[in-house]
Amino acid sequence: MMRRLAHILLSGITAVGVLIATPIIAPSAAHATPGTTATLVSAAPSPSRVVAAWGYRGTTVSTLQRNLATLRLFPATSVTGYFGPITQASVRRFQQTHHLAVTGIVTQSVYDLIAREARARTASMQNVVVAARGSQGSTVAAIQRNLARLGLFPATSVTGYFGPITQASVTRYQASRRLAQTGVVTRALYDRLAKDAATRPASSVLDPRCLTGARVLCISKTTRTLYYVTNGRIVTSMAARFGAWNTPTREGSFRVYWKSERHWSTLYGSAMPFSMFFSGGQAVHYSSDFAARGYAGASHGCINIRDYGRLHWVFDQVRVGDKVVVYR
Predict the structure, then answer these.
(1) Which of 7, 151, 198, 309 is deepest in the core (most CB within 10 A)?
(2) Contact 144, 155 (CB under 8 A)
(3) Collapsing DSSP states into helix, strand and coil, what is residue 153?
(4) What is the pLDDT averaged over residues 208-220?
(5) Torsions phi, psi of 22, nearest 5?
(6) Of 53, 121, 55, nearest to 91 (Cα)?
(7) Residue 117: CB atoms within 10 Å
(8) What is the pLDDT of residues 221-261, one digit of tens each?
(9) How much is the average pLDDT of 55-65?
(10) What gap in Å lies between CA 229 and CA 216, rounded to an integer?
(11) pLDDT band at 136 (very low <50, low <70, confident <90, very high)
(12) CB contact set of 107 (below 8 Å; sequence gap of 6+)
């Protein structure tokens, strides 16, 4: 009898020892499962573990939906964090195209595979050209509006057509960000431009000295742009070219001291239409050489403009005594 009692007690201790040594593993909080609110003990996820299926909710489902949207298997506007029939159908399509069991259930391995392919697609899409010379449509219009917000494109010229003015504006934006000046908009550039336009007001590209005054010629050597500014608001902008290394354009704050609509340079024997002189013989003026050769040439210190019509309009607005700011 005593031996039998000892055997029973020993068996009970062994059973308790097994229970104590066995960890209690609950689903990870990183995954959304119905009714699960907390994790007791974390464990490495099993490839076959179900992380999302019909009825699941949470951030895991939201991430899954966004990744499926990147792969064009799910509508991007329907990311809700709820795994319903649309999500299930998208998962089934993914499984089918990858020769997997078409269950509509997302295990850890399927979840990871979808995430990897979404990252790869995002990376490859960054270099895809979304707009270039000759493109037209809503994408081009969005590019033009964002460039206008940064003061690199005339707001009144948003047409949705990617012509020479848009190309020059894109090139100036690329120069301001020290990027390759291709004049072509890739997905990565489009996203960066949109972010800049959303987070920075147009005035942020201007020197503070340009923000006061009824009329200011604000000229940035960094973006190679002349901005015509009235009371801190950019009205229009145009590409600008400056002096060569041995005849540099002076920097600083100046005043227009003389205007000459049909000026002729006796020193260099060339026409300088719409000249607005601001510092010891240096002026803002139209340059046919700039229009023909672009940045392959340089001025003798003046600020060359190649947009004849726009400079003509600005010339008519500017008065003697108006501020001119040249800066980097």
Answers:
(1) 151
(2) no
(3) coil
(4) 94
(5) -90, 120
(6) 53
(7) 16
(8) 887 889 899 988 888 888 899 999 999 999 999 999 999 99
(9) 95
(10) 5
(11) very high
(12) 47, 48, 49, 50, 51
pLDDT surpasses 70 at 3: no
Rounded to the nearest 10 degrees, what angle do helices 187-199 and 138-149 cross at?
40
Q: DSSP states of 232-278 as a string?
A: TEEEEEEEEE-B-TTSPPP-EEEE--EEEEEEEETTTTEEEEEEEEE
For residue 34, pLDDT over 70 is answered with: no
Question: At a CB cut-off of 8 Å and minimum separation 6, what does 96 contact?
Answer: 102
List 131's β-bridge partners, or say none.
185
- For the record, the structure tokens of 215 come out as 């009329």
- Average pLDDT of every residue of the chain: 84
- Specify the higher pLDDT residue, 301 or 238: 301
Closest by alpha carbon to 194, among 136, 148, 143?
143
Q: Are 207 and 157 in contact (CB under 8 A)?
A: no
Going by C-alpha positions, the residue among 229, 226, 165, 174 that lies closest to residue 203 is: 229
Residue with tokens 């009825």: 55
Q: Which residues pair with 258 in a beta bridge?
A: 277
What tokens does 257 get?
Answer: 């001291």
Question: Which structure tokens are listed for 277?
Answer: 């002189």
Q: Tell me the two tokens of residue 312.
A: 């003509």
**pLDDT confidence tier of residue 44, bands split at 50, 70 and 90:** low
CA gyration radius, the chain: 33
Q: Which residues pair with 270 in a beta bridge?
A: 265
Q: Are 293 and 186 in contact (CB under 8 A)?
A: no
245 vs 249: CA distance, rounded Å: 9
**Confidence grade of residue 43 (pLDDT, cut at 50, 70, 90):** low
Do 23 and 42 contact (CB within 8 A), yes or no? Answer: no
Helix H or strand E segment including 284: strand 282-286
pLDDT at 29 over 70: no
In the structure encoding, which two tokens stand for residue 158, read together? 């948003």
Nearest to 261 by CA among 283, 239, 279: 283
Strand partners, 255: 323
- DSSP secondary structure string for all residues of 64-93: HHHHHHHTTSS-GGG--SB--HHHHHHHHH
